[in-house]
Design goal:
The protein is an alpha/beta fold. The chain has two domains: 34-321, Periplasmic binding protein-like II (D-Maltodextrin-Binding Protein, domain 2), CATH 3.40.190; 325-449. Helices cover 53% and strands 16% of the residues. The chain is built from 14 helices and ten strands. It has helices at 2-27, 41-55, 70-78, 142-151, 169-174, 190-203, 215-221, 263-275, 277-283, 305-311, 318-321, 323-371, 375-397, 403-449; strands spanning 30-37, 60-67, 84-88, 97-112, 128-132, 160-164, 180-185, 208-210, 226-230, 246-258. Strands 1, 2, 3, 4, 5, 6, 7, 8, 9 and 10 form a ten-stranded mixed beta sheet that branches. α4 links the parallel β5 (128-132) and β6. α12 runs parallel beside α14 and α13 packs antiparallel against α14 (403-449). The radius of gyration is 47 Å and the shape is rod-shaped. The two termini are 77 Å apart.
Length: 450
């Protein structure tokens, strides 16, 4: 009985301890590995985000995994070496990842120096175009140019291509090694702005902005692109650059998360990135370019369900996320509580029955003591009484009986002892009387004989 009770209690404590340990591991910070191009603007931005997450003791933390280019970042995500990756939409997209945050959008800009006769893409046929190298790929965006040429029904070989960097643009134009430039980036900032100014200086006049053309068709036929309008005067200069709104295409740089991550984890990442946006922008203005991806079901680039839930205001609350845990925990605690209550009730019932049995037996001994016919019977009753009292006091010392029971049983044991003493005295008195009577009967006969 005692062994069964102990087993129940140990099982209950084990269940509670297991639930507590599981809850601890579930609530501890989740570390996510993020693949990002080494030394890029995204690398610096994510480093700052990781520091903020650490200082805020957030539920999700970032461990950056630097790679050589965006293609390597996507491969790291697809192979499971990382949990997230940053990459552009114009390159092969991850097969196992979906969008969390649109880090920024890069517009495609075609330019030629002043004096050139380039009013459309067709005018560039047979010419040489310089493609400005991108930091995330360490290569030019040839795929973008191929898509544009295909939409204009121009062969990929209709243009000669040269990979250039921003610093070499003026020399390449002055030496006529290139006739036009294609650059991608944030309009007005970074490489695009630098190239516009370089072309203006090299051409000694306002640069020519060549329309991409067919932008709506390009966006409709490829998930990599979207329509983009560059407002007039976006680039600094004495005159408006461009002189009027420029219709072009853009691709997006995105933070992708593995589909194997829990929705709640990705929701926490999305919340962290947007809540940190103002603080990140103080160090890196590029953070202001972060935007929410489309949560439409038919979006060309699907958004991770966890991010969509946060953006649509459907993110589960703490109680919603842990409702099953709370429900199971309540069931476990209910079972354990019932077991403990049953054990306690069992203990109380056993002690009460034990007390009643002892009292009943002592009353029986009290009756037998008054009817005992010899001293041997009294000795047996005395021994049993002593054993009952010893057993009861041992149980009382372990907390099975309260002071009232101890006092009541002590009184009863005292009465039994007194009854045994009285009966012993009575038996001894009777024996002494019988001896005296026998001696008196013998005395006359002794006298007559004398």
């Amino acid at each position: 009985m005692k062994r069964s009770l102990l087993t129940q209690l140990l099982f209950g404590f084990a269940v509670v301890a297991t639930a507590a340990i599981a809850f601890y591991f579930y609530m501890r910070p989740t570390w996510l590995r993020v693949a990002v191009v080494r030394g890029s603007a995204d690398h610096q931005l994510m480093q700052a985000a990781a520091r903020l997450q650490d200082s805020d003791r957030a539920s999700v933390r970032f461990t950056l995994v630097p790679v050589n280019d965006s293609a390597a970042a996507i491969r790291a995500l697809d192979t499971g070496n990382t949990d997230m990756a940053i990459g552009p939409s114009d390159q092969p997209l991850p097969a196992t990842g979906k969008t969390v945050v649109v880090m920024r959008r890069h517009a495609v800009v075609l330019l030629a120096p002043a004096g050139g006769k380039f009013s459309s893409l067709a005018d560039l046929a047979g010419k040489t175009i310089g493609i400005v190298k991108d930091e995330s790929s360490n290569t030019g965006h040839n795929r973008i140019l191929d898509a544009i040429l295909a939409r204009h029904d121009m062969a990929e070989t209709s243009l000669k291509r040269v990979l250039v960097d921003v610093a070499s643009v003026p020399d390449m134009l002055s030496s006529q090694k290139v006739d036009a430039i294609m650059v991608t980036g944030i309009p007005g900032d970074g490489a695009v702005g630098d190239v516009v100014h370089a072309i203006a200086r090299a051409g000694k006049g306002e640069p020519i902005f060549i329309p991409v053309g067919h932008t709506n068709a390009l966006a409709q036929h490829s998930s990599a692109f979207e329509q983009f309008a560059i407002p007039a005067g976006t680039f600094a200069g004495a005159n408006a650059r461009p002189p009027q709104e420029l219709d072009t295409i853009a691709y997006s740089v995105r933070l992708f998360a593995s589909v194997n991550l829990r929705d709640s984890t990705v929701g926490a990442v999305t919340r962290a990135m947007f809540s940190q946006k103002p603080r990140l922008a103080l160090q890196y203005p590029l953070a202001l370019r972060m935007s929410a991806p489309s949560t439409n079901k038919d979006a060309a680039l699907p958004t991770h369900p966890g991010a969509a839930a946060y953006l649509d205001g459907e993110e589960q609350s703490f109680f919603d996320r842990f409702s099953e845990f709370f429900y199971l925990g309540a069931m476990v605690l209910s079972i354990v509580g019932s077991a403990v209550a049953a054990a306690a009730s069992h203990l109380r019932f056993d002690s009460k029955r034990e007390y009643r049995d002892h009292v009943a037996r002592l009353i029986e001994i009290l009756r037998l003591a008054r009817l005992a016919e010899d001293a041997s019977m009294l000795r047996l009753l005395q021994l049993e009484t002593d054993n009952i009292f010893a057993e009861f006091m041992t149980a009382a010392a372990r907390g099975r009986h309260d002071e009232t029971r101890v006092a009541n049983l002590g009184i009863l044991v005292g009465q039994v002892h007194q009854a045994l003493l009285d009966r012993r005295a009575a038996l001894e008195g009777a024996r002494a009387g019988m001896v005296t009577a026998t001696e008196q009967l013998r005395e006359p006969g002794l006298r007559e004989a004398s």
